[in-house]
């Protein structure tokens, strides 16, 4: 199979595809033979407003290059809208093969000042939105015994970051959602994987830049374009990745990292059972060298990307 038809015959829904990473994935998927539903509500980074122009511009870019695409302007946080995205794929292209859950918003604020609305809105778009679209596609994937889902997670959730409790909770939740989908649907030939992207986008553009270190970090991220994320996403959607599911990848510029997932790292047991006092005396000292440091994403990914 040549690279130019890796997704030949596949129908792909990409959410949040009007700009940034979603746009890059939609265009590259189309260039590899996919027929694409370009979903984008067209809101701001905070999720306000609606604008059809970004999605329509991506559709035009695809069709001008000889590909096939249609626009959808639904809100992933609404289950009915998510269902319509899948139905648009089926009614226009006859089937649905792949879902890319990319839509997202940010409402960054330090935790003790975060409101319920700021928490709920981010969870609704990222986590609930990923559930809504995946769930709408799942019955068709099961029926045809095939399907691939790619979800966008973040090192803000996998590792940590300041001022992003809502975003981190949603993104770590997406990793758990993806793993569960992979487990539940593997018997139907359905795959589910996560990508944690480092790429300059409108969302990343809201990162605070109050210190020299933060400004330098943002400067480096600006060099990582959304087009760097698309190749891995297209590969994971394709049949060439048929043996890859339940995994988490990080993409930084030209680097692709396969991430570890939680496993036991230290074990203590006693035949007498534990009391608070024996936990204090034995467990506390024994685990000290194995405790995970309180680090941020930038502390762990502290080398310059290639």
List keywords for this structure.
14% strand; alpha/beta; Rossmann fold; single chain; 8-stranded mixed sheet; 306 residues
Polypeptide structure, described:
It is built from 10 helices and 8 strands. With 306 residues, the chain is an alpha/beta fold. The protein has a single domain, classed as Rossmann fold. Helix 3 packs parallel to helix 4.
Total beta strand runs: 8
- Please identify the structural class as seen in this structure: alpha/beta
| Total of domains | 1
In order across it, which strands form the biggest sheet?
A: 3-2-1-4-5-6-7-8
Name the shape in a single word.
Answer: globular
Oligomer: single chain
Largest sheet: 8 strands, mixed
Q: Termini separation (Å)?
A: 29 Å
Q: Spell out the CATH superfamily.
A: NAD(P)-binding Rossmann-like Domain
From the alpha-carbon coordinates, what is the Rg to the nearest angstrom? 20 Å
Strand content: 5-15%
Low-confidence stretches: none
Question: What is the CATH fold-level name?
Answer: Rossmann fold
What does the average pLDDT come to? 92
Please, how many helices? Answer: 10
Highest-level CATH class = Alpha Beta
CATH architecture: 3-Layer(aba) Sandwich
SSE order, as H and E?
EHEHEHEHEHHEHHEEHH
């Amino acid at each position: 199979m040549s690279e130019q038809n890796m997704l030949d015959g596949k129908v792909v829904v990409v959410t949040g595809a009007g700009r940034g990473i979603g746009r890059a994935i939609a265009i590259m998927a189309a260039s590899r033979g996919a027929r694409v539903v370009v979903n984008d509500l067209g809101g701001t980074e905070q999720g306000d407003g609606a604008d059809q122009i970004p999605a329509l511009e991506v559709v035009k870019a695809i069709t001008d290059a000889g590909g096939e695409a249609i626009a959808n302007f639904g809100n992933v946080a609404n289950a009915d809208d998510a269902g319509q995205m899948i139905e648009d794929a089926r009614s226009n292209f006859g089937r649905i093969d792949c879902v890319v859950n990319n839509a997202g918003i940010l409402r960054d604020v330090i935790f003790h000042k975060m409101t319920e609305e700021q928490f709920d809105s981010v969870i609704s778009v990222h986590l609930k939105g990923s559930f809504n679209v995946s769930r709408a596609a799942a019955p068709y994937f099961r029926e045809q015994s095939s399907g691939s889902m790619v979800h966008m997670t973040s090192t803000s959730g996998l590792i940590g970051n300041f001022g992003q409790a809502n975003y981190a909770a949603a993104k770590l939740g997406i990793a758990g959602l993806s793993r569960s989908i992979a487990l539940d649907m593997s018997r139907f030939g359905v795959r589910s994987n996560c990508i944690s992207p480092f790429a300059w986008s409108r969302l990343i553009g809201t990162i605070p830049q109050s210190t020299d270190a933060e400004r330098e970090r943002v400067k480096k991220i600006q060099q990582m374009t959304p087009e760097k994320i698309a190749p891995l996403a297209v590969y994971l959607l394709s049949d060439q990745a048929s043996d890859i599911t339940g995994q988490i990848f990080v993409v930084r510029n030209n680097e692709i990292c396969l991430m570890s997932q939680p496993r036991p790292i230290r074990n203590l047991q006693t035949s007498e059972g534990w009391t608070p006092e024996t936990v204090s005396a034995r467990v506390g000292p024994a685990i000290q060298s194995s405790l995970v440091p309180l680090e941020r994403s930038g502390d762990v990914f502290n080398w310059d990307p290639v």
